[in-house]
Every structure is written in C-alpha cells, then in structure tokens.
Specification:
The complex is a heterodimer of chains A (122) and B (341). Chain A is an all-alpha fold and 122 residues long. Helices cover 74% and strands 0% of the residues of chain A. Chain A is built from 3 helices and no strands. In chain A, helix 1 packs antiparallel against helix 2. In chain B, 53% of the residues lie in helices and 14% in strands. Chain B is built from 10 helices and 12 strands. In chain B, helix 5 runs antiparallel to helix 8 and helix 8 runs antiparallel to helix 10. The radius of gyration of chain B is 28 Å and the shape is elongated. Classes of the chains: A mainly alpha (122), B alpha+beta (341). Chains A and B meet through helix 1, helix 2 and helix 3 of A and helix 2, helix 4 and helix 10 of B.
C-alpha cells in the first residue's frame, strides 16, 4: 500500500539564491582555513625535528589541528552542523564511545606488550 | 489488554509519519554506513599506533621517507603529500558546491562542479600511484647494514652512474665493451646480491666491469637500528666518514647488506610492519577514492540525463557528497598519523 502522508524530507534542502550566496561564502572561508592549517602543519613538520625538545608539544598540536580540520569538514562540508540535534548525537556519540575505548585499550595493552618485549629482549 | 488501547488517544500517537531525525531514509543510512567505515579506519590507524609504539627498531620519520617531488628530485620534505592533501580538500570543496547548486535546482552548476570533483579525484589517484611507485622503488642509496651491525638510511645526492666498462668477458658482454643502458637497475641488483667490489660490478652474465660513477655529495647516514659502535639517536655521520662506512658495506660482497625500496617482506625505511601498514592503509583509502570517483561518475550521468531534475531534488548528489567528504576526512587523519607524526 502506497502512503501519501509521508513527508518528503529530500525537499527540505532547497534554498533560494540569497541563502546560496551566504552558504558559498562560508564554504570559501572554510576552504581557506583548511588550506592554511595544512600549510602550517607542513611547515612545522619540515622545520622541527623529532629529536627536538619541542616535539611532544608539536605532536599534541598536530592532533589538535587535525581534529579542528575534521570538525570543519564534518560540520560544514557534510552539513552535520545543520542537521537536527538528535541526528548529530546518534552519529557522533556511538562513534566517540567506541573510538575512545579503542584508543584506551590500545594504549593500555601497548604498554603491557612493550614491558614484555623489554623483559624478554633487553 | 483491549481495555487499555481504548484509552489511547490517536491524535497524540506517533504514526510513523514524521522522522525523528527529519531526514530521508537514504541520507540516514549513508550516515550509518559512514560511521561503520570510520570505525574501520580508526581501527587501522590505532593498530598502526599500537605497532609503532612497541616496535623495537626506530620507526621511519615522514619527512625523511617522503621528500621527493616529481620532476624535481629529492629535498622537498612532505611537500608532495601536502599537495595531495590540498588536491583532495579542493575536490571536497567542489563537491560541496555541487551539493549547494543542487539545492537551488541549478542543473548546470551541479554538472560543472561534479566534473571538477571527478577531475580532482583522478588527480589524487594519479598522485597516489606515483607515491606508491616511488615507495616501492626506493631511494638510490637504499638502507645499509654497516660493519658494526647497525642499520642506517642514507641521505644525500647520489653521483650519477655514467657507464660500465667491461674488464672480463662474460656470456653476453665482450671485454672492453661499454655498457650504457639500464645501469641503475643492474647496479642495485648487484648490490643486493653482494656482487659489487671496490669500483667493480659482477654482471648477471658473469662478466666483470669497472663502474664509472660521478662522486656522491653531502652523504649523511641516519642510524635506524643500533649496532656495536653506532647507536640510534647518536651523532649524525656525514662526509668522508659516511662515504667510507657506506662503501665498505656495499663492497663487502655479502648478500642483503643493502635494501632498496619496499615489498611485503622487507623495506628500506624501517621495520617490516611499516611498509605493510603503508600499503594497507593508503591502499584501502585509495580504494575508497577510486570507488568514490566511480560513484561520482554514475551520479554525474544521472545529472546529465535529468533524472534528478525530474525527481524534484538532487539528494543523490548530496548522498555521494557525504561519501566523498568522508574520503577527504579519512585522508586528513592518514596525513597526520602516517606522514606528520
């Protein structure tokens, strides 16, 4: 049985020329930002050696800049920022629960394995 | 139970009419697929981090491993991967512009930006093919095991091979002949087999030839595995000392003292797992890009034939757009964890 009372959400994305213009401006701004971040990352990567005292700071900085880039891609390019709060949560919360757990267990087990290696092959 | 249902008010019941997320089924499913795919990539990158964390040998450093540019040679750390990242970001931007044009039912705009996105995708795939080829063939010096048992990678300018002058005849070459073809390939093959000795090469046909080679410049050895004398993180070995140590090992006549490039068994950059992770993670991502380009082409055909215009909305473009942005998103993480850190 075909239902005629269902809402066609695909049509909700439509907008007029004026809205389109402001969306495009936002896209260009984000493009510039992503490019600048990438350039900064490469400059730092090429100029600061891994043996340098600054390296641990640089590592954290790289990860933060990457998360910033990822945030802009997901929220602006993939429009997740414009979706309903429930949709956003249903995508992000399960993902972060699993990934944080995976990172935790990898670090925990990695340290244990490292200790074993060191004991067996000092 | 029938008594209870009579008390329910039909007006306040959710009749399945309205979606709690207020999106179409297709878009929601694309998001769920992306979450599962994101978990796959997270698993791979975390496994990479785990292996790197407990690897005993020094792990390769991105700026040392990836410092070549097409047509320009060596000495451009990370520039090529940065360019690849930029290409992928730009193609992501053209995709989001196609989606925006779709929201205005601008069929010409969608076509234009979809074509730009597909071109960007092909550029990225080409770049990755070059990167793989370069990774597999390796550097001109290779990785060398020094006399004290330490292992070093070599930086600097490799003096060009000019010719091989045959001294003792073999099955193919006569004494006095000058060989000018395919020198590098024969040289590296002989080096791996231990068929080099002070300035001479034993060719595959059994002949012995003198190597005419320009001088190397600015040679530098970076120790990746500690030996008796030289340690990881120790002082850099440069100049005459580096050349002496390198050629001593190269002319030792022993097999497998030098390794060029990478395969599934060994590689010149670092521990064996490094190349395996490189092939798997960048390969799996490259496969995503490839399928993304194919899907984009199929959707472009739909746009050109007017299917979506007749349907009244360009949501198919939006859905493939989500996939395409996801590919860009994964690359951002691969770039950081594989090349920068």
């Amino acid at each position: 049985m075909e239902r005629d009372d269902l809402i066609e959400y695909s049509l909700h994305g439509h907008h007029d020329e004026a809205t389109g213009k402001s969306i495009r401006q936002k896209i260009y701004k984000v493009t510039l930002l992503l490019t600048v971040i990438t350039v900064i990352e490469v400059l730092i990567g090429a100029s600061i050696k891994q043996s340098s005292d600054w390296w641990s700071t640089v590592k954290v900085l790289f990860i933060l800049l990457t998360l910033l880039k990822a945030g802009y891609i997901v929220m602006v390019f993939m429009h997740l920022g414009d979706e309903r709060k429930y949709l956003r949560n249903v995508i992000l919360i399960p993902y972060f629960i699993f990934v944080l757990y995976l990172i935790f267990i990898a670090l925990w087990e990695g340290t244990a394995v490292g200790t074993v290696w060191d004991k067996m092959f000092p | 139970m029938a008594g209870h249902s009579a008390q329910l008010d039909a007006k306040t019941l959710w009749g399945g009419k309205e979606s709690p997320f207020q999106t179409s089924y297709g878009k929601l499913m694309m998001w769920f697929f992306l979450v599962s795919d994101a978990l796959t990539f997270s698993g791979l990158l975390i496994a990479y981090g785990f292996t790197r964390h407990d690897a005993q040998d020094a792990w390769p450093i991105g700026e040392e491993t990836f410092n070549s540019m097409p047509f320009l040679g060596h000495g451009y750390p990370l520039l090529y991967v940065a360019l690849m990242t930029f290409i992928l970001i730009v193609s992501s931007v053209t995709m989001v512009l196609a989606v925006e044009a779709g929201h205005r039912m601008d069929r010409k705009g969608v076509t234009k930006w979809m074509i730009a996105t597909i071109i960007g995708g092909f550029f990225f795939l080409g770049s990755q093919a070059w990167e793989w080829s370069h990774f597999i063939h390796g550097s001109e010096f290779g990785k060398i095991e020094l006399a004290d048992g330490s292992v070093a990678i070599v930086k600097g300018h490799f003096g060009e091979l000019e010719s091989f002058q045959v001294l003792e005849a073999g099955k193919e070459h006569k004494a006095g002949a000058i060989i000018k073809d395919d020198l590098m390939h024969q040289y590296q093959h002989a080096a791996e087999k231990g068929h080099l000795e002070a300035g001479k090469i034993h060719l595959a046909d059994g002949s012995v030839a003198k190597i005419n080679k320009a001088h190397d410049h600015d040679m530098k050895l970076i120790i990746k595995k500690s030996g008796k004398t030289y340690k990881v993180g120790g002082k850099e070995i440069t100049g005459k000392e580096a050349e002496k140590l390198y050629y001593e090992a190269l002319y030792s006549g022993e097999e497998n003292r030098v390794i060029y490039g990478a395969n599934m068994k060994q590689n010149e950059y670092g521990p064996q797992q490094y190349a395996q992770f490189f092939f798997f993670i960048t390969g799996f991502h490259g496969f995503h890009v490839f399928s993304g380009v194919i899907i984009n082409i199929i959707i472009l055909l739909g746009v050109l034939s007017g299917t979506y215009h007749k349907r009244g909305h360009y949501e198919m473009v939006e859905k493939t757009g989500l996939y395409w942005h996801f590919v860009d998103l994964v690359w951002v993480f691969v770039f950081t964890f594989f090349y920068l850190l």
